[in-house]
Structure formats: structure tokens, C-alpha cells
Structures
1.
Amino acid sequence: MADCIFCKIVAGELPADVVLRTDSALAFRDLNPQAPTHVLVIPVEHVEHAGVLGPEHAQLLSDVFAAANAVAEQEGVAERGYRLVFNVGEESGNSVPHLHLHVLGGRFLSWPPG
Ligand code: 5GP
Ligand code: ZN
């Protein structure tokens, strides 16, 4: 997608603090972190948001979650606990139209979220 900032990060056209890269997923630190660990895991393939996912995305999603699990281990939060979030739509605050899984950890996370 020509105008997608996360596609540009995948292509190396925009900088990012990459923590993990696989053939199908990329993980990089959020520009505006909300916790000591705040990493975004995205599929290399452009998918708009979690609301359009279907059976054809099974492998892509499995790869994204495998990358998120690896990031949690790498960041030292796997044992302590962490939160995985997909924001969907305006009221969730979703701002970038390329599927991204937030990996948040390193502090106690309140519930319900704001
Ligand atoms: P959303 O609200 O769409 O679920 O989350 C988008 C996230 O992307 C936000 O947490 C925001 O800080 C982050 N973000 C937006 N633009 C960039 C960018 O260019 N680079 C990085 N690393 N993060 C970004
Ligand atoms: Zn994209």
C-alpha cells in the first residue's frame, strides 16, 4: 500500500526500532510508548485491521502471534504478564490502517482500559 506508514517501515523507507523480523512479520517499538515494553507486531502483508480478518488470514495471524510471543520472551515480560491489543475502528482510537498487535508490559496494566 503506497501511502501506508507501516508498509513503508516494512520496506525500509521509514526508520523504526525493529526488535524482531521474520519472513511474514515485523516487530518494532511504538513511537509513543505507553508502558516500558510497547512493541507493535505487524504482518508484512498489508491488512487493514482486525475487523477484516477471515480464514484466509489464519497463517498470517499465527505468524503475528508467534512473533508477539517471541517479543514477550525477548523483552523479559513473558513470565510477569503482558497485554496484547488490537484496536479496531474510531472509538478504539485506531489510528494506523495496517493491522498491528500492541505488546504492552513491564508495569501493572489496569483494567478496564481507558
Ligand atoms: P492504534 O491506535 O492505531 O492501535 O496504534 C497505532 C500506534 O502506532 C500508536 O501507538 C502510535 O504511537 C504508533 N505509531 C504511529 N506512527 C508511528 C510510526 O511512524 N512509528 C512507530 N514506531 N510507531 C508509530
Ligand atoms: Zn500497510
2.
Amino acid sequence: MKFGGTSVADPEKILRAAERAVQARRKGQDVVVVVSAPGEMTDELIDLAHRVSKEPDARELDALLATGEQMSIALFAMACRSLGAPAISLTGPQAGILADERHTSSRILEIRPQKILRELSAGKVVAVAGFQGVNPQEDVTTLGRGGSDLTAVALAAVMKASHCEIFTDVKGVYTADPRIVPEARKIARISYEEMLELADAGAQVMQARSIDMANRYGVRVQVRSSFQAGPGTWIEKIGEGPMEDATVSSVALDKGEVRLTLVEVPDKPGIAARVITELAKRDIPLDMIVQSAPTHAGVNDISLMTPRPSAGTAKAALEELARRIGARRVDLAEAVAKVTLVGTGFRRHPAVAAKMFGALADAGINILMISTTDLKLCCVMDSRHAETAVRVLHKLFKLGRR
Ligand code: ADP
Ligand code: ASP
Ligand code: MG
């Protein structure tokens, strides 16, 4: 069972979450609970770090961020005990979650669950801190934003749990963010592939890396409400859908990225490689790398999207490179958002893209960048128009109806 930040935001909610774990334990199930930091605490800790340092040291930032989850597990274990069930809290390192060096976006290398297993066999509910591990230097690391989902799925995988329950503040995975589109419909079952597209496109409800892990290890995941009863959404292996049709299944919004453009780059072999190498060296995540066709003057533009926190580093790296390769300048567009239609069969059915772009045009929305695959149609636009775009597309493709 994993409880997200909103589900452990205050003492009453912690007690309510603990009640669920205790009930499952009383039914004879062994329960491992993963908890996130309460409420917005991770954001607040990041702000705090930036108030003492412009560029906080990554090791110390991880040391700080890990405290949010540690607060939650201790309170969770106390809450279980006050409900009469033995329980124990374990930090990521105590739980045997071994991760690599990359501070703030560390990968899980291995899990040694012996201590968890010992505590389970002593009859305890085990509360494990999400989002953290220990690296080979014995330093605590964090697993990227939303990383408690990854902790939960990884533990379910190594412990061969029957499934992994993700408790959150919505009833499941919807056809669009229900906060933006009130008519959005809860999806009963979704394949790993589609959920991965949706998560990659910015649907916050599950961390993309956790879905990749669930797929690789065949962990069935149920996303459900912490506050309401009833079934949620199952993320699992699903046989292929209709083979020849195009289906549009959901629409996602991502406001977490910025666009960088290297303007008037000499059109020569090897330039794109040098651009991306500079960013790869710094471990900067990239998306939508687009190179325009060369002009008569023998130059082109290279644009890409990168997560907001990487913008400064990425821009500085590209500016330095621009000087060396003779590109004119680097533009940074911060007020942008990415709206993605997720589904299947888009390559064979260009009418879907035509309909999407047409509807955005009718709504007076200018598209800044487009990228498409068979499984998604993705448009970058001014962030002021993004919510409208999501609602327009949700309605256009009648996603609220079955
Ligand atoms: P937690 O704190 O439990 O990890 P998150 O805030 O990370 O919760 O994720 C839940 C939020 O994801 C919801 O409140 C909702 O606004 C947002 N969300 C975005 N897209 C979707 C979607 N397609 N279906 C459900 N929720 C979505
Ligand atoms: N607390 C971490 C975050 O806000 C991890 C999580 O909630 O999954 O990103
Ligand atoms: Mg989350």
C-alpha cells in the first residue's frame, strides 16, 4: 500500500490511512506501507534549500528532502500502534533500498528486503519511507519527484506481492486530470504501455518510472482513493485493442517543462550530436528534440524541451556551445505547456491529428511545436491556453463518454 502526500497531510488523515493498513493486517495479510512526505512538504523543503543557497549541493538537498518521508513513516507507525497494531518505521536505507550515485534522480540498483521480512514475520505493519535509497557511498539519495510510487512498485516486485495499491486524492486514473476537466471519466483498466505514455505526458497521478518498473516485473497496480471506497483503476497487462482503428483514450497536460531553441545553427554533419552530447554529459533529461529543415543560408534551428529545474544548466551549456559552433543565440521559453493526446493508431489515421490541430486553431490557440508517434500527438503551446486546450480536446474526442 502506498499513501501519497495528500493522504498523509495531517494527523487525521494519517490515522485514516493507518486504519486501512491495520484492517488488512487483521485480515491476515502481510502489509508493507510506503508513505510520501506530508502535503506539499517536498516543495517546501526545496524552497527552503533555495533560501540558503542559489544552487544547493545535491547531496545535502537529498539529505534534506529525505526528512519529509521520514516524518511520515514515524507518525504512520505511531498511528498504527495507537490503533492497537504492532508497527515499525524504516527509512529507505534501513529497508535495504540500494540506489546509484545520481543525487535527486537516483535509480534503484537492488533491494535487500531481509529486515522488512523479519519485521513482517514478527507480525508488524512495516512503514517504509518512499522516494529514498542509499548509494554506494552510504549517502541517502532520492528517486526523482513522485518517487514514492517507484518505491512502492519496486518493493511489490521484490517481495512478489499480489499487487500494489496506490492510494491518492482521486478515485483512479481518468481520461484527463479531473481537476481540469470535471467530466473526465475514471478508466477501469489501462495497459502499462498506455499508462506510461500518459505519465510521460505529464499526468501526475503515477510517476512514469514506476510504470516502467511495474511493466518489467509484471506488478499489477491499482490506483484508488484514500478517502472514498470503491474500485479504482487497474494498471496491468492488457491484450491488444482494436487492431486497425485509431483510439483516443486520454489527454494529458505538462507544465513542468521549458523550451530551449538554438537559433541558426550551421547545417553540418555532427552538430546535433555535439548539442545533445553537451546536455547528456550533464544528465539533463530531454524531450521533443526537433531540428528544422535547413534554410537557403545553410542554417537550421534545434529546439527541445527539458524539465524546469534543468533549464538554467541546459541554457548555460547551450550558450557556451553556441559560441563554439557559431550558432546565433539560445532562446528560452518558460511560459509553455505540453498538451498530449494519448491513444493508438495515430500513424495510420492522420485524420485524428487533423481534427486535433483544427480544434486548437478554432479555439485560437497557436501551436509552437508538434511531435507525434503512433501512440501520442503532442503540442507545445503558450501555457495560458493549456487548460482550455485540454478541455477542448476532451470534449472533441468525447472522452467523457464510454
Ligand atoms: P500523491 O500525492 O497521492 O502522489 P499526486 O498529486 O502525485 O498524488 O497525483 C494525483 C493527482 O494527479 C490528482 O490530484 C490529479 O490532479 C492529477 N492528475 C493528472 N492527470 C490525471 C489523470 N489522468 N487521472 C487522475 N489524476 C490525474
Ligand atoms: N515526496 C516526493 C515528491 O513530492 C515523493 C512522492 O511524493 O512520491 O516528489
Ligand atoms: Mg505522486
